Amino acid sequence: MKLQLFILFIALNSILFAQTETEHFIFQPAKGGGTLITPKEKTNEILKKGEATLDWLGYDKEIPWHKDVYVKPFQEMINQHIFSSTRMKELEKNANIRICPYFDESGIIKYIEFWLPTNVTTSLTDKELYAIYQAYMGIKYDISFCKAYNDKGIVTQFYCSDFFEIPFEDLKY
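The structure assignment produced for this chain is given below.
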């Protein structure tokens, strides 16, 4: 009976306020559509720096972000048995989530949120989302070959955001 009342409370809360909370995250409608999943009790302080766009024109090598930023942290979670082979195969079918890191001029990820498309759910649990959050916080984008600019020109203090899906095709499990 208590469990049924709790589920009813969560359902009513999300209908009335379009927001649901778990132990670590807040699920709420995103301004551009879909669902934004943000960490509880964390503020995206990096936004104060002002957004910039990175320019890597003239750089003719492979940009190392895919391997170093997208794949490596997730592979380490698999190697540490945070995600089993069986669980990864399940997630391939229904993870449906985008990881959205924010980094500053140092290239270090300072904030992470997640995004789901409209009317789509994820099979990731709160605990798994939190593990992903922890694994990617502090990871460094190599932006040494880039220039950052905004509408005022080249800038030296800024933030950039990125988004990517779980890189299943490059993971070994």
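Interim note for the steering committee: The beta strands are 20-21, 25-29, 35-39, 53-55, 98-104, 109-116, 147-150, 153-154, 159-161, 164-165. The helical segments are 2-17, 65-79, 85-94, 126-136.
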